[in-house]
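Appendix C reproduces, verbatim, an entry submitted by the partner laboratory led by Prof. M.T., so that reviewers can inspect both the input and the predicted structure.
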Amino acid sequence: MTHRRLHWLEKLQVQLTAAGVLAVAYFLVWRLIRPADPTGAVAFVATGALRDAGVLAAAVLVLTIVGGVTTLTARPEGAMTAVLLGLGGVSLHSGPMRTLLWVRQDDLAALYWQMAAETVLLGAILAAAAAVLHGLRRAIDGRLGRWAWRDLLGDFDERQQREYVRFVAAGKDADGADAYDDLPLKILGGGFARIIVGRAVAGRRGRSGATPGDEMARRGMCFALLVAAALALVWLLARSVDRGQVLFAVFGGCFLAAMLAYMVFPMRFSLPAWAGPILVGLASYVLAATGSLESGQGAWMRVPACYQALPLDWLTGGAGGGLLGYWVASRMHENKFLEYQEEREEGA
């Protein structure tokens, strides 16, 4: 199959899996963990509902296994993206955080510390799910033959692999011409990277021989840019305390931040895409707990919208949106480079 057909099949599998997980989360998982108050927010540590946290952890792991099986010809990040976005069905059911803020308005700092602890707990569940998916893929990929996901860049030799890094990072092909024809991709490709991190870093990125230290530096800068951009975008997009607006801010901010980070520092390493949003959520709660939030009567009405996302939102909309941004960016880079290689072979 051509890479276009493989990309189409991968997208179809991820979309169908996400739709299936969404239905399961919305109609089944929600019934197992919904709070006693029909309008209450889904929170585990702050409400003492640790049994429900265990149910959610089991649901995440089971759905990850199912998603890993139904997306066999998709990259592993596609499976995790589908699972997390599908679990957003529980977030859609949840009531707003202001129901908790109203009950705990006399000790908001303690509430936000509990939210921070819950975010760490959900991050650990996500890390466990990623490990399970990795183990599942290693166990079954070798037995599936052509039905298993195949890295389309794995057939290239070392020179072509280095050329791929230069192609997507510097925005130039082997002859020095622009790799991206349309303006948005040019901006997100090479030129914007040099604006942000300077010519020195861009020059290092364009070298033919990268060392392990260079790769670690790229990963660190990608992670830092993703966290900073997500924090800024979520705070910018959270213009209202309405539940839908808060969910949109978390998802949209993390998606755009991941797209930006992986366009500036392209790599096939997805840890920043899901760990970054979890860290942003944790930082938001810590800032709220140690900041200038008031306590007492009516304090719940003065909490900014950027502090009203639930830990569950950072798991589903945040990490899910970040992985979706990584998935889209990596497929975009891969498709452009494969088309570029086809054109070179036809010209030769």
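Residues 3-347 form one domain. Additional entries are available on request from the coordinating office.
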